[in-house]
């Protein structure tokens, strides 16, 4: 089964920077879009940035010019470089991977399917 794990969150002062990483592992045939979402307490989950397999990036308006998403296809990894952080950026950041991979079933066979896989999330806190 394809698994996704994030790293790189933490506590930073306003104006500071953090770099998040997210790696997909398992039996992977192809990764389509990779993206970062965030969810703050009492708020809905929102898309922060996404990048296609060809490298086309999209950003929510509030992070344009401050955040940069990139990916390393050889490592099945997506990064989010966050600069000039605001207190409003405080949230749990979750990685989303649109992937075709293989899963071992309980009957012992192998299924190939395309799914959206999510990581557990990493906390980003911007505070002085």
Description of the structure:
0% of the residues lie in helices and 60% in strands. It has strands at 3-7, 10-12, 18-25, 28-39, 46-51, 57-59, 67-72, 77-82, 91-104, 110-118, 122-126. Strands 2, 4, 5, 6, 9, 10 and 11 form a seven-stranded mixed β-sheet that branches. It starts with a strand and ends with a strand.
- Proportion in helices: under 10%
| Main β sheet profile | 7 strands, mixed
Strand content: over 45%
Radius of gyration, in Å, reads 15 Å
Number of strands: 11
Model regions low in confidence, pLDDT < 50 over at least 5 residues: none
Structure in a nutshell:
By secondary structure, the protein is mostly beta strands. It is 0% helix and 60% strand.
List keywords for this structure.
single chain; 128 residues; mainly beta; seven-stranded mixed beta sheet; four-stranded antiparallel beta sheet; elongated
What topology does this entry show?
Elements: E1 3-7, E2 10-12, E3 18-25, E4 28-39, E5 46-51, E6 57-59, E7 67-72, E8 77-82, E9 91-104, E10 110-118, E11 122-126
Parallel strand pairs: 2-11
Antiparallel strand pairs: 1-3, 3-8, 4-5, 4-9, 5-6, 7-8, 9-10, 9-11
């Amino acid at each position: 089964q394809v698994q996704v794990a994030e790293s790189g969150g933490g506590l930073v002062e306003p104006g500071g920077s953090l770099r998040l990483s997210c790696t997909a592992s398992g039996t992977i045939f192809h990764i389509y879009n990779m993206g970062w979402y965030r969810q703050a307490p009492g708020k809905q989950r929102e898309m922060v940035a996404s990048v296609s397999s060809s490298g086309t990036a999209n950003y929510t308006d509030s992070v344009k010019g401050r955040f940069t998403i990139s990916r390393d296809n050889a490592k099945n990894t997506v990064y989010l470089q966050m600069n000039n952080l605001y207190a409003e950026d405080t949230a749990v950041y979750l990685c989303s991977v649109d992937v075709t991979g293989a899963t071992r079933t309980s009957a012992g066979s192998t299924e190939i399917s395309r799914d959206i896989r999510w990581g557990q999330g990493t906390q980003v806190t911007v505070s002085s």
